[in-house]
Design goal:
The chain is mainly alpha-helical. 63% of the residues lie in helices and 0% in strands. The N and C termini lie far apart (66 Å).
């Protein structure tokens, strides 16, 4: 069975033979980002590197799509959506919500984290899991924040009602 990278390279050739310029351009751009990541990290191209580079590309495209929507550029929004769908074909299915919640709960238990201040420990524990390449860490971060209490005594925390984090009036700070 060919690797993800070999499959993508074969799809580039197929797109070129079919004279599908948009697909060929998108896949060549992704190929270049994979090769750049390989050179930057001094690692050979493997499935983990390909998945990482493609996830980054999809995230960048999604961010750009939001900006194009704000600018009312329907043509660019459509082009980005098409490219995102194309690249997502090479990405493994992500972990569903219930499984992610179970992994987060397990990581909190393993790390012994008691507050949001220790979120890094939980993320570190998640990264050691075998499912780590499939985890959407932005969604995991939101789940961790929801499950862990805010640090007591912090500005705007439970022990300090009425003063938000943005309230930096020196007359109130004593």
């Amino acid at each position: 069975m060919p690797t993800l990278y070999e499959q993508m390279r074969a799809d580039i050739v197929t797109a070129l033979k079919a004279r599908d310029a948009a697909t060929a351009l998108s896949l060549r751009t992704a190929d270049a980002s994979i090769q750049r990541a390989s050179m930057d990290l001094s690692k050979p191209i493997d499935d983990a590197l390909v998945i990482g580079a493609l996830r980054k590309a999809v995230k960048n495209l999604a961010d750009a799509k939001v900006e194009f929507e704000r600018g009312a550029r329907a043509d660019l929004v459509l082009a980005n959506e098409t490219e995102i769908r194309l690249l997502e074909k090479y990405l493994p299915k992500g972990i569903d919500g219930a499984r992610l919640e179970a992994l987060v709960a397990d990581a909190i238990r393993e790390s012994g984290a008691l507050s949001r201040k220790e979120m890094g420990k939980v993320i570190g524990a998640l990264k050691t899991k075998p499912e780590a390449p499939l985890i959407d860490f932005a969604a995991a971060s939101k789940l961790i924040q929801a499950k862990l209490p805010q640090v007591p005594g912090a500005i705007g925390g439970p022990a300090d009602p009425g003063r938000g984090a943005g309230d930096l009036n020196p007359n109130k700070l004593q």
